[in-house]
Amino acid sequence: MKNLSSNKILLYCKKLKDSSNNYLWIPLSFGIVQAEVAKKSIFITVIKLVFNIFLFSIFSFSNLFSQTIAELKNAEKIIGVKTEYGFIMSHRQGMGQLQAHVPIIEIDFNIPTKGEKYWHKLYRYPTMGIAYTYADLGNPEVTGTANAIMPYLQLPIIKTKYFEWNYRIALGMAYLSKHFDRIENTQNIAMGSAFNIAANILFDFHFKLSEKFKLSTGIGFSHFSNANFQKPNLGINIPSIGIGAYYQFGKKKTIIIPSDSTTQLLSKKIYALVIGSYSLKAVYPPGSSIYPAYTLSIEAAYQITKKRRLGIGTDWMYDQSLLPRAGIDTTYNGVLNNSLNFKAGLTIYEALIIGRLQVSIQMGIYILRKYNEGEDFYHRFGFRYNVNKHFVANLSLRTHFAKADCIEWGMGYQF
Question: Which among 201, 241, 244 is positioned nearest to 103, based on CA atoms?
Answer without folding.
Answer: 241
